[in-house]
Amino acid sequence: MTVIRWLVLGLSCLFLLSGCSFTNGSTAGKTLTVxxxxxxxxxxxxxASGELQGFDIDLMNAIAQSADFxxxxxxxxxxxxIPALQTQTVDAAVAAMTxxxxxxxxxxxxxxxxxxxxxxxTRTDNQNITNFDxxxxxxxxxxxxxxxxxxxKNLPGSEIRTFNDSPLxxxxxxxxxxxxxxxxxxxxxxxxKSGNLKRLKVVSSLLTEEFYGxxxxxxxxxxxxxxxxxxxxxxxxxYAQIYQKWFGIQPPQLPEKSPIENQIPEKGVSELFISLNxxxxxxxxxxGGALVTLELTALSVLLGIVGGSLIGIVRLSPALPLRxxxxxxxxxxKLSLV
Length: 338
Ligand code: ARG
Description:
11 helices, about 350 residues, D-Maltodextrin-Binding Protein, domain 2, about 15% strand, three-stranded parallel beta sheet, 3 domains, binds arginine, alpha/beta, 15 strands
């Protein structure tokens, strides 16, 4: 009996120790997997040598530094990011992602980190496209899953062509395969300015006012960490420095909350369903854990029986030292009872 108790105790300690090393992983110094689609300059793109760079990358690195976590970037298409966040394949994303009410129902967003808006790009020689209404009955290019793609749906009679990334969309415009592109204004302007997008212009003023946020899965404990880091870099001047580096001007004032957040119900039935969903999704992992516990229990019982029998036999031994050793186990049992 004593041996079984010691074995169970020993195994429990081992269990606790391994548990500790897991929890250590979720406190300071942990690594977050962050989705990125590096085809969206100046927010995220790759240098000729393949190095990740851009406003979002600098900002994310600064946030990680001030909130004491590491970042592992994972490339994926923009349209794959929200599903990846929902299934918790990634911990966050930096993708110039606009905070929208629709998205905020299924993922969480950090406080806004960039003020943006949609604009129309067309060829310099196109005189017909002058505003949003003039896009009717035209061929519009958009990147799949973006706010630009959503906006284009409001255009009756126009043909929408979707592309996997933003450069493909703008290339289609240069080639004459689409009449206009709906995209984030800064991205079009940056492309034109850096000389990559020849014969293109931006028409009219901003069509929308949008704010970018860093998305995480719903209920993620990392959201707090990211918000803390973001608040620090906004306060200590690092944010302004990064903004200056990429846009050459001082950043505008940012609201603490995105205006759309007022329209999102904080808690309620939808929240309950989301929680249930998370529990259901975690069920296989939880059941797997229960199975391991059962296996360990069975193993400890088996080891206890074998070990206990051995000690019992040794206690009957004629050799005194052996009897003494086997008796020590019993003695400690009595001590533990005092
Ligand atoms: N801001 C837009 C949106 O959230 C476009 C973002 C596209 N980002 C990217 N990395 N391609 O829909």
